[in-house]
Each structure stands twice: as structure tokens, then as C-alpha cells.
Amino acid sequence: MATIQNIADRLGISKGTVSKALNGASDISETLRKTVLDTAVEMGYSRIRRSRDEAKKFCILTKNIEYREPHQFGYDFVIGFRQMAEPLGYAVEVVPVDQKFQKSIPYDVFMLQQDYIGAFVLGFSLDDPWMKDFETSHTPTVLYDNYISKNPFISSIGIDNSEGMALAVAHLKELGHKKIGYLSSSFGSHIMQVRHKAFFHAMKQNGLRADPSCAGTSFYVSHCIEKHLPRLLDLGMTAIICSHDLIANAAIVQCQQLGVHVPEDISIVGFDDLPISAYTSPPLTTVRQERLELGKCGFYALDSILNKVYIGTMYLHAQLIVRNSTGRPAG
Amino acid sequence: MATIQNIADRLGISKGTVSKALNGASDISETLRKTVLDTAVEMGYSRIRRSRDEAKKFCILTKNIEYREPHQFGYDFVIGFRQMAEPLGYAVEVVPVDQKFQKSIPYDVFMLQQDYIGAFVLGFSLDDPWMKDFETSHTPTVLYDNYISKNPFISSIGIDNSEGMALAVAHLKELGHKKIGYLSSSFGSHIMQVRHKAFFHAMKQNGLRADPSCAGTSFYVSHCIEKHLPRLLDLGMTAIICSHDLIANAAIVQCQQLGVHVPEDISIVGFDDLPISAYTSPPLTTVRQERLELGKCGFYALDSILNKVYIGTMYLHAQLIVRNSTGRPAG
């Protein structure tokens, strides 16, 4: 990995100037500072090399994830991460970033400029510009529900979605269901692809038939419900697993409007266990994402990369929360 | 989880007697002690509940794994684990266990009796009696290269074998190979099943043909080499991936005896990067298991279970070590 001396040599300037530029000193021109930062990133310079006594600062990068209130999806992630990091002397800052911002600055340059030694990344989709940067980044980074292969500095954490889907299908099979459908958001997010594949795998493992017509996928929740829910009901499905709780909740509401009873006529299973899901009517059976643990997990993975233990993936055991949206099939 | 009081109530004896029995006091009869331990295990009592000030002791359980000398497979696992655990005040003991011993005492009873708060398990095969115990155990346990689903107290760690196999196949494809075979030990170990599946998956991902005849599997290395190597050569394979380095090494030796040159006539890839593999002739291209990191990883997973972060799986990034046993195919 490059040192400050290497960067100085490459640019033909002094070590002191490089150091000043890296640390944002005011007597360095913006142009020179940018050149130094870009070169540092290109050469793989990283703050990890700096002594343990200096400020240690992590960021949690969020996109489209609310986290300020306890009922919001990101809240427990942030709390869990901070519960692990802060007692060890790390500072943690939450930084929402949109695509426009990501386009404005390369990821490693941003991290170096802000003096972050690592990031925990929540809510990115596959078309986020920094997803490309992660492939070659030298900054310790942990992605929730996204995956980058082969780069030792990037870890992936989440729940074990295959295990979660297996629990959901086994639960429905035990109740007596044989015809099970699947409703999903479209595949712009990594995790939607994973769960889709896991559904068909779990069906096969349980000896249940599932051809492509059993699944319905749309970008918009409303579209997914309007287009695919009646189709799955027509196919004689007695249970439907949804790729996340928002679809499951919308499916329950739509069934009520169609005069189809949950769970008497159709069982519905969600994914995530959003704070709202205990209060749907009926309360939703769902695969839980233990968000406080996932936040801690994010810290574990980052800390291990800093200790040169290059974790690729770290998945929590999945947990099925059985509530009243599932029951025995009619007849 | 059960308390000492719960155990006392169940057995109709005093809390003090339960406590004495759990701590192996000499004035408790062997029969009573056994009854208390069995009840404690049955009720899910665990040492985790005890105060942090008491002795904290982990064990590394090994089966068929040598670990005392630096050239032995288990050595770095033990060192890595201890490097993480001991500075934090944990004691670590290595305990070799064979099947006979496992049959003599249930796993949780053994752990409670010995006052271990968690175990890192190396070298178990699928037919080891304690593998069954792990399904319902309440003791924090981390399995290297084995997997137990659904029990939150059991984690699985290893390298990402799918990533490793993908690296191996992509490397061979890049060199120009199209016909690639696979030699493997039989499926009595979990990881042999994983790698076998990963081979076919990686071939498909790389757009290469691989039907079942491309793979050869035997219990004994010698049998695998004698029976399947000539067959794969006859099929026109220009490269062979082996499920572990011992098979790869044997394949290299056998090729020499057959007058087949490595890598000119056939490229050979191993798995594990055993200490010996840099010194085979030619030196072996292989997927590395970073054993020191895996030892640290084992500690990370145990520590996280103790912190109630129930990791199911934790896999390190795989790394392909390219040496001289692979080259361009002839012609």
C-alpha cells in the first residue's frame, strides 16, 4: 500500500505538502489538494496506515433509508453500529448520499477527504454510481444487502435469506399448503434477486412445484399487486410469499377489497418484519431482519477488515415470526 | 434461558446444591452432579449468564487435525484464534476429540462440565456424533467448514468456496482452457459437497460445458487418482481442479508417471494452499485458505454470539495463488 512518501515522489512535491493536502490545510490550493487526493486514491493510500491514536471516524452512508425515529427502518441499524463502535472510541457519523452526490466525487476521494476510516453502507441499489467504485476501492467498507466479489476491502452483511425463505416455505408446507406463489419488487436491488432465487430453491428443497408463472415481479408495489395478485389467485395459490413487508401489506389490503379472506382463503408471508408489520390486519407472518444485530454485525465486519481479516460475507441466522396472516388452507 | 433457581425448583433441591454441582464441588455425589448437569442442559442453562468476572474459557475442538507444528494444517487456526482471544482475557484450550469420546458424553454436558463458554470446532465430518448435538445445543459454537441451519447458537465460518471456485475456473478460462475436469474426495464432509456444487456452478457461469462425467469422486486419494485421472485425460481435459491440495499433489505425481507434463499437457489447480503446496514440482496453483485469518474469524463469530449477534455464516474472501502448475493448453 502506498505511503505519503510514495505520493510525494510521484508528484515531485515534499512529504509535508502531501500531508498538508491530505489533512485539508488551508495554505494548500484547491487544485493541488485535489491532485494529491486523486493520486493518493489511485496509489491505494489509505488512512488505515495511520497511527491508532489519531481520530478514528466511521460513517454510515444511507440512501433512501430513514433512521432518525425508532419506527424507521434504519434506526436500529444506526443504534446497533454505534453501540459497538463508540465504547471502543470510534466516532460515527450518518451521511445520507444520493446518486447526484455520488456522481460528483469518487468514493475513495470522499472517504479520504472526510477522514473516514471505513463505511457501513445502507440502502444502495445496483445502479448507484459508488457500487462501481466499491469494486476497486481500498477503503474498508461493509455493504448491507449488497455484494461485491473479489475485493478484500469490501464485506457484505445481512440475514441469511436462503435460510429465511426455507423457514417461510417449510412453515407453509407444514400448514398443508402446496400451491405457493411469490410476489416481488423488480431486480434493481441485489437482495430482490437473492430472495427470488431462494424462493424457487426452497420450493424445490421442500418437494413443491414452482414454475416461473408462480412468481410475479414489478417495479411498483401497486402494479405488482394489481397485475399479479389476481393472477396468482386464479392459479389456485393458497399462500403467497412476498419479497418484503410493504408488498405483503398491500396484498392483504387488496385481498380484503377482493373479498378474499386472509388467512382463511389465502395465507400471506412477508420479509423484513418492519415495525408496522405487527399491526397490519391480520398481523403479518414474516421473516425478521434483526436490525439491531445487523448494525452490530456491520461493525464486526468493519473491525475485522481493519484487523486484516478479510470477511467476504457475514449473514445472520434468519428467524420466522409467525403471526395471524398464515393458517391452514381451506378444504 | 434457565437460571440456577429454575434448575433447583425442577429437581426440588437448594440453589446452593445446584451451584455446587455445576462447579464440581467435592461434597456432591457423582450421581447428583450428573442429574444436575443433565437437567441444566435440558433446560437450556448456559454459562453465558454468569458474571463477566469469572473465568472465561474457550476450547478449540479438533478431530483429525494436527496443530502443534507450524507446517501442520491446524497450527495457524489455533494461533489466530488465540491472538484475538487472549488479549481480551479469555483462556483457550485445544481439545482433540474422537468419535468414541463424542459418543461417551453429550456435547452440552461436556462443555458445561469443563466450564467452556464456547467452542471453535475444526475437522468434524458429517458422521461425527456431536454434529447431531449441535442442532439443538445452547452453547455458543463456531464450526469451521461445517454448517448447521436454524440454531442461533451455532455459526459457520470458512472461506467463500464459491468465490474460490469461480476464481479457479476464470483463471483457467483466461489461459484458454475449455475442457476442465474435477477430482474430489467423497462427500462425507460438508465442504466437499459445497465445492463439488461450486465447480459446476462456476463452469456454467463462465459459459463452459460440464456434465457429471467431468467429475470423479472417491473416498481414497489413491483410488481417485487411479480411477478418474486417466478417464479425465481420455476425455480430452486440458485442466483439472482438485477438491484439495493432497489430491492435486497426487495428480501431479501420477501425471509425471504417465508421461503427461504439468502444465504443458495438463493444468492442475488445488484447494487449501497447504504449507507443502509451494514446494510441489511444479509448485501448485491453488485456492488459498488464509488459516490465520480463519482462526481470527472463529473468534469473531464466537464473540458475536456471546454479544447476542447470531451470525449464521461468515466467509472470508477467497484468494487464488497462481504458481506453475497452470499454463496455456497445448496447441
From TrEMBL, chains A, B:
Domain HTH lacI-type: 2-56
Keywords: DNA-binding, Transcription, Transcription regulation
GO molecular function: DNA-binding transcription factor activity; transcription cis-regulatory region binding
InterPro entries to which the protein is assigned, alphabetical: HTH_LacI (IPR000843), LacI/GalR-like_sensor (IPR046335), Lambda_DNA-bd_dom_sf (IPR010982), Peripla_BP_I (IPR028082)
SMART domains per record: HTH_LACI
PANTHER family, alphabetized: HTH-TYPE TRANSCRIPTIONAL REGULATOR GALS, LACI-RELATED TRANSCRIPTIONAL REPRESSOR
Name of protein: LacI family transcriptional regulator
